[in-house]
Amino acid sequence: MMEDSLFSPLAGQPLADKLRPKTLDEIVGQDHLLGPDGPLRRMIDGNCVTSFILWGPPGCGKTTAARLMANHSDLHFTALSAVFSGIADLRKAFEEAARRREAGQGTLLFVDEIHRFNRAQQDGFLPYVENGTVTLVGATTENPSFELNSALLSRCKVFVMKPLDDEALEKILVRAEKVVGRALPLDDEARATLRELADGDGRYSINLIESVFNLTKEGEILNKEKLLALVQQKAPGYDKDRDGHYNLISALHKSLRGSDTDAALYWAARMIEGGEDPLYLLRRLTRFAMEDVSMADPNALNIAIAAWDAYERLGSPEGDLAIAELVVYLGTAPKSNSIDRAWMAARKAAKQYGTLTPPAHILNAPTKLMKELGYGKDYQYDQDLPDAFSGQNYFPEKMPRQKFYDPPERGFEREIVKRLAYWERLRREKNRK
After folding, report:
1. Which residue from 202, 166, 164, 211 is spatially nearest to 184, judged by alpha carbons?
2. Which whole-number Å values give the CA distances from 302 to 41, 286, 323, in the listed order?
3. What confidence score (pLDDT) does residue 405 get?
4. pTM, whole model, 2 decimals?
5. What is the DSSP string of 110-150?
6. 3-class secondary structure, 102
7. Which pLDDT value is given to residue 219?
């Protein structure tokens, strides 16, 4: 194929427009939805398109898929963006759809970034979706469970679109070379690097391809280093007040819990590079020290507080090392949630036996009357005894003895297990006397 001439209809047209799929089969990376047995393909082939939500990352083909689905049906395609549209735009779209319906034609209303409409605006879709005035296709990069009204979700199926994998991105590269009429001026390593830089985003990969074509000299072949110098590396995909925020902190927390220190460092770095507040990260790591390391290494909490204090004193970038050191310490520390389980069990028992008074022997008796009532009678001061242990009952008299704290034999708690066993043996011996 020849390159576009000055008078070609494609001249001056962005590469993204030239590569935009014309058929559903040209959409890459979404075979689970659009392949021969995919639910969206079945919906189209059966001419029974119903309202649905497309949830996926940027550049995976949500808008293109919706537009082509409309082309494969007898529905009129109307597109809105929640970023640029308001109530007036919605009202106009619904009124036009109602007129088309009276004339016998349906409307596929595509709403990009639908999660950006507020709850009241989302409620406005309900009557038009319910009565069939529009078939709604919403696109969102955010988790619909959190960002969309439950009433609207109940009337729409949710289909998850995936980031483009390496194979799909390579298909885009090959298609671009065919359209432009020459091979990308990259060696094999640089070509693989370009796909990595795209990070699953087809739209961004096309922008990179276009930059390479436009900014390389004739006959020049770029290696990895030259490619990186030529293009601006994509900022990490992260929105610190939305779904990505919760996905990454969950990934960090679970990597630490699984003692995968290297993975934990990666997720922490992703959050910092994405603009996360380091103090939020330190608060969550301190929480991890209490909840997941806990008594297996009591020093973890001290390290967490020290790292927090060090960051507040130093700031970035020096203070970032305090975060890294804390991540490594927590990742390599023994883990235990015994305190969390003990506390939950104790709270449950507190609700069950919440009206019982302490046994009389452990009540203070500051007055004569209280002494006459038996307050403090027969109390034994443990430290005055040979074993510094009395074995007395400290639970309410009408409450059976409970065991809330059951530590594992890991880390520091291995020693605590020995202490508890020792005290339990003394308790049995003393109570037999």
Report:
1. 211
2. 56, 9, 14
3. 92
4. 0.60
5. EEETGGGS-HHHHHTTHHHHHTTS-EEEEEESS-HHHHS-H
6. helix
7. 82
Rounded distance, CA 1 to CA 50, Å? 40
So what's the pLDDT on residue 98?
93
- Structural tokens at position 62: 């949500």
Contact 49, 75 (CB under 8 A): yes
26-40, 231-245, 322-336: least confidently modelled range: 231-245
Q: What is the pLDDT of residues 172-189, one digit of tens each?
A: 999 999 998 889 999 999
Single-letter amino acid, residue 101: R
Contact between residue 178 and residue 26 where contact means Cβ atoms under 8 Å apart: no
Query: Residue 297 burial (CB < 10 Å; 0-12/13-18/19+)?
Result: buried
> Residue written as tokens 């970034």?
113
What number is the average pLDDT over the span 1-25?
Answer: 64
- pLDDT at res. 191: 92
* Cα separations in angstroms, 354 against 227, 363, 396, 399: 68, 17, 10, 10
Q: Grade residue 92 by pLDDT with cuts at 50, 70 and 90.
A: very high
Q: Write the single-letter amino acid at 393.
A: N
Q: Which residue type occupies 407?
A: P
Backbone angles phi, psi at 197, to 5 degrees: -60, -30
Residue 113 has pLDDT above 80, yes or no: yes
Percent of the chain with pLDDT over 90: 36
Give the tokens for residue 331.
Answer: 């990742």
Q: Are 233 and 197 in contact (CB under 8 A)?
A: yes
Rg, Å, the chain Cα set: 32
Residue 99, SS3 per DSSP: helix
């510094």: which residue's tokens? Answer: 388
Helix and strand numbers (H, E) in the chain are: 21, 5
Gap between the Cα atoms of 335 and 256, Å rounded: 9
Inter-residue contact 361 to 379 (CB < 8 Å): yes
Environment class of 202 (CB within 10 Å of its CB; exposed 0-12, middle 13-18, buried 19+) = buried
pLDDT reading at 2 higher than 70: no
